[in-house]
Design goal:
The complex is a heterodimer of chains A (about 110) and B (about 110). By secondary structure, chain A is mainly beta. Chain A is about 0% helix and about 55% strand. Chain A is globular, with a radius of gyration of 13 Å. Helix content of chain B is about 0%, strand content about 55%. Chain B is built from no helices and 12 strands. In chain B, the strands form 3 sheets. In chain B, strands 2, 5, 6, 10, 11 and 12 form a 6-stranded mixed β-sheet that branches. A 4-stranded antiparallel β-sheet of chain B has the order 3-9-8-7, with no helix packed on it. Chain B has a two-stranded antiparallel ribbon with strand order 1-4. Classes of the chains: A mainly beta (about 110), B mainly beta (about 110). At the A-B interface, strand 4, strand 5, strand 6, strand 9 and strand 10 of A face strand 5, strand 6, strand 10 and strand 11 of B.
Amino acid sequence: KAGVTQTPRYLIKTRGQQVTLSCSPISGHRSVSWYQQTPGQGLQFLFEYFSETQRNKGNFPGRFSGRQFSNSRSEMNVSTLELGDSALYLCASSLDGARSTEAFFGQGTRLTVV
Amino acid sequence: GDSVTQMEGPVTLSEEAFLTINCTYTATGYPSLFWYVQYPGEGLQLLLKATKADDKGSNKGFEATYRKETTSFHLEKGSVQVSDSAVYFCALSEFTGGGNKLTFGTGTQLKVEL
């Protein structure tokens, strides 16, 4: 079956703009999580959605937001972009988001803010 | 809060050498433990997991045992190949705040040479 699909793969934005990233989970998976990966901070948890509800949130400013649709697809939005938002954004899906359930990652969206 | 500490890289080995990448964790509850691998330009792939103390996860010749007494989950492989060159991440998963999140170590880059 198809894996986790993230679009677009690459983005270049200007400071102050906003951006929306999309994630389509594996069919049947109801939990979607987002992570930011940077050389300096490593992999950091942004938020997790399950059945259209945000269940958990990391320590990121309110400029970072997300949502999940009834078909489990998820989007994350970053407003008023800053240079420091340049990163690889990874989406992960799992069946139910339980602690023992493995998460499957997409290839990521590489965001560059100039 | 939860944290994962893994050995700094890069680790450079000759093909067929023995590999150990150390990983220790701090968690308040009873997390599940994972090793993920990331190849250049790709997202994360689950390598193996263990969900309770003394469990051994294994896949593709890699192994790791969940040691609660030493809070460790060291990754081992008896004979590495050039194709194993990648970045390896140790991670833990706890069901917190009603949702799931993965906490990652900083990653260890492995280079295998002929």
